[in-house]
Every structure is written in structure tokens, then in C-alpha cells.
Amino acid sequence: MKRRHIFAFISGLMASLLLAIGCKVMTVPANAQTATLLIAAAASLQDALEELDPLFESANRGITVNYNFAASGPLQQQIEQGAPVDLFISAASRQMDALQGQNLVVANTRRNLLTNNLVLVVPRNSNLGLTGFRQLTNANVRRISLGEPRSVPAGQYAEEVFRNLGILEQLRPKFVYGNSVRNVLGTVESGNADAGVVYTTDARVSDQVRQVATAPSNLHSAIVYPMAVITASQNQPAARTYAQFLTSSPAQAVFRRYGFGIAE
Predict the structure, then answer these.
(1) Rounded CA gap, 204 and 257, in Å?
(2) What is the chain's percent helix, strand, coil content, to nearest 5?
(3) pTM of the predicted protein model
(4) Pick from 203, 202, 135: nearest CA to 170
(5) What pLDDT does residue 232 have?
């Protein structure tokens, strides 16, 4: 008799457990996404995107996001060579145009996400008294750091400014090229350059440099950050979800705090 009671108790307990497990499974949304994304993004986006990452992942429990931050040119080349990237965010239209021309991005997912400004920075303890781009021709300015123009959009924009001011060739012997805008910033921070050209957003995150001038927007191409889902992505729905998140009000508030403008 006791055995029958014990068996009945165990059977009831197992049924209750199965019911509880079943209920727990049923609480998971049927359309929940599970994916690990690789986002290739311009180096100047690193601080903002890393701050946004927990916010996105907490709202999208099944999606994990990894990042590859570098200059836009090398990121473009990696995508062309088949790197398993899901979403690309460039710091210029040129790299995105090249990928779109090869059908390597999903055209209807492309949109301009952000804008930025180009600024002149000097080491925090600089005593050169620089207040504008034209003063870079001064004899006491020996080394100017900027991105390699063919691969780093900030370097391309810097050369446009110098060309439009009519001082490019005069300055060229002073150039010290960096492989990303963050590399340029580091060169100025360390004092290995007397000045450098970076984005407003880079200058804001460093307490080792001082911003002394902003380039007038009519001296360079519009600085925009286009993004698009990669055609070869195996996680396109999740990549679209992430792209949509970057246009949300909470994400835009973070971008603004870092000094970005929101593209129209």
C-alpha cells in the first residue's frame, strides 16, 4: 500500500515538473531570433557602439553582437574578400558605394545613420598657440597627423580641407599618416605630432588633446556614416533588427552625447 502511495506521489511530481517546464518553454516568443552578429564599423564609432551594446542585447536576448572596428577602407576590403560580416557602418559614402556597386550590400537596407565634424587637435600641453588650420604652415609645426587618405575617410576629408585652403602641398612634408582615426588621435595624445585632424567625436573622448578649430563644412565633402546589411550575411533578419535599433530614440541620444549628428 505504501508503495502505491509513493509511486502515485512520484508520478504526480513528475507530471507537475513536466507541466512547469512546458509552461516555461511556451513563454519564449515564437519569433525570437537567435544569432551572433559581426558588425564592421568605422573606428570613430567604437565608444558609442560599445555603450549601446548592453542596451541592444538586453532587449534582444537571443542576439549576440561582436564588433570589428577599423578604418573604413580596410573594412571594405575585408568584406570584398568574404569576411563573415553582417552589417557595415562606414565613415564615408565612398566605401559603401564600392560595395553596393558589386552587389555586396542589400541595397534597400542602406541608409545614412550619422554625421560628424572635422576638427584640429593638439596635445593638451601644447604651447604653439594654434587656433586654425592655416597656422599649420607655421615653421614651428613640424609633424601633422592625419589618416591615410586612401583608406581612412578622416584623412580624405583633411586633405580636401587643405586643398581648398590652398596649403596642401606646403603641408605634405609634415604629414604623419595613421591607419585609423583613433591611431591619429593616439599620435597627438602621445606628443608624436604637433597637431592632428580627427572627428569631433574622437576629440571628445580624449582628455589628452585640445580641440582648437573646426573645419568649415564647405571645405570638405559631407561627413556621413552609411550603414547596410551585407548580402552574404547568414543573419539578415537579426542584422536588420540591429540596424533598426541604431535608429531608435535611445540609440540616437547616445550618439548625440558623443557628438554625432543624426543624418536626415
Answers:
(1) 10
(2) 45, 20, 30
(3) 0.83
(4) 135
(5) 98
